[in-house]
Amino acid sequence: MYLIKKAHIYAPEDQGTQDVLIGGGQILKIAGDLPAEEDYGVEVIDGSGKVLMPGLIDAHVHILGGGGEGGAKTRTPEIMLTDIITGGVTTVVGCLGTDGCTRTMSSLLAKAKGLEEEGITAYVYTGSYQVPVRTLTGNIMDDIILLEKVVGTGEIAISDHRSSQPSKKEFARIVADTRVGGILSGKAGLVNIHMGDGENRLKFLRYVLKKTEIPASNMLPTHINRSRALMEDGIDYARTLGGYIDLTTSSDPDFLDPDEVKASTGLKMALDAGVLADHVTFSSDGQGSLPVFGPGGEFVGLGVGKVASLYREMRDAVLTDQVPLTDALRAVTSNPAALLKLAKKGKIFEGADADLVLAEKDNLRIHTVMAKGVVMIRAGQVLAKGTFEH
Ligand code: ZN
User: Fold this and answer.
1) Which of 60, 142, 13 is nearest to 339 (CA)?
2) C-alpha distance from residue 31 to each of 16, 52, 89, 149, 354 (Å)
3) Could you tell me where the DSSP H helices lie in 23-167?
4) CA 173, CA 167: separation in Å to the nearest integer?
5) Do 2-53+347-382 and 55-339 show the same overall fold?
6) Residue 255: helix, strand or coil by DSSP?
7) Catalytic annotation on 285?
8) Where are the domains of the chain?
9) For the segment 78-104, what is each residue's pLDDT rounded down to a tens digit?
10) Do residues 154 and 140 lie in contact, with contact meaning Cβ atoms separated by under 8 Å?
11) pLDDT digits (tens, 9 = 90+) for 259-289
12) CB 230 within 8 A of CB 197
């Protein structure tokens, strides 16, 4: 058992300074002053001068590796546990990507299971960019209903030269099947949608909301910040139709494409434009392939997107773009938890899973990370390593 003393809790809403008792993988008690019963093996963690936040949720990670667009040698490697926890992330949703041929659902499920065994929480989407969607059991609904870890479909590519160019009706059918699969299994039934830079932008999502009874909460379009035009369309989609939008964090902030919007800035733009704070999420696109630039901005080769960029953009939103900590945190905790229907994740409350991040109050540097009540990082030192990390 652990007792975190005198931390300023952002749950993500500001709950002031409190003590938090943790045991059995859960948050047992939150109160102003809890006694440290050392006889019962309670270990005290000093939270003074620190903020306590929910563990981050990254709803779009190529846990198995992605890429491959430059030939087989550009397929990116699998993610390691420390790539995830060092960014304060304690829950991931794994996805395939452009390549639904050499990357398979069975491997994706096995990888998610492995990450779970290593101590974090992991789910997956069924399918890849491709339509018709390649599934494990034969169709979307069966995958969601029968496979515990499958919480939705994705990333389905639209408005992109790499997509299968589905019709809007085919797209609506995918969302419908995913929604019903979710209803029948008590899961989210969320479709994660890869947005390319095609001119149709969010047209298909508007079609679903206008022509069907499906609510906006079953669709999460991602990479919305890839261009100014898409960012503006995303803001309009969220404001006028109550849509949800996801901003990608993994691009190198020093070498952003001139048309790309930094995720932290995109959040500020959306909030200033009147988008509700619970309608914006961040995800990393971690482990996807990314161009790497030299000091002069010249292309030097390919690298791998980092899950830790999720935390960086949340922190930059607060420290650089002046977004309140509560709103910035929502984008990486309670908002994805709500869309993914993860009832015990993304918030700090009694009975929630003990997925927690303790960070320095002034610069938000990560001090301690806990996943399901186990300390993974302590005083900045990584304690938990993946099976092949030493
Ligand atoms: Zn994508």
Assistant:
1) 60
2) 10, 14, 25, 34, 16
3) 81-85, 105-117, 140-146
4) 10
5) no
6) helix
7) yes
8) 2-53+347-382, 55-339
9) 999 999 999 999 999 999 999 999 999
10) no
11) 999 999 999 999 999 999 999 999 999 999 8
12) yes
Task: Give the list of residues 6+ apart from residue 13 with CB closer than 8 angstroms, or none.
Answer: 326
Q: What is the CATH number of domain 2-53+347-382?
A: 2.30.40.10
> In this structure, what token pair is assigned to residue 130?
């491709």
Give the integer Cα–Cα distance in Å for 182 and 103.
24
Out of 58, 285, 327, 353, the active site residue is: 285
Whats the size of the chain, residue-wise?
Answer: 390
**Amino acid identity for residue 140 in this structure:** I
For residue 376, the CA-to-ligand 1 centroid distance in Å is: 29
CA of 263 to the centre of ligand 1 (A): 15
**CATH 3.20.20.140 fits domain 55-339:** yes
Q: What is the DSSP string of 178-206?
A: HHHHHHHHTS--EEEEEE-S-TTTTHHHH
Tokens linked to 62: 């190529």
The pTM assigned to this predicted structure is: 0.97
Q: For residue 53, which of 316, 357, 366 has the smallest C-alpha distance?
A: 357
Q: Compute, in angstroms, the gap from residue 118 CA to the centroid of ligand 1.
A: 26
CA distance linking residue 147 with residue 307, whole number of Å: 25
Task: Give the count of alpha carbons within 13 A of 250, CB side only.
Answer: 23
3-state helix, strand, coil in the chain (%, to 5): 30, 30, 40
Q: How far is the CA of 285 from the centre of ligand 1 (A)?
A: 7
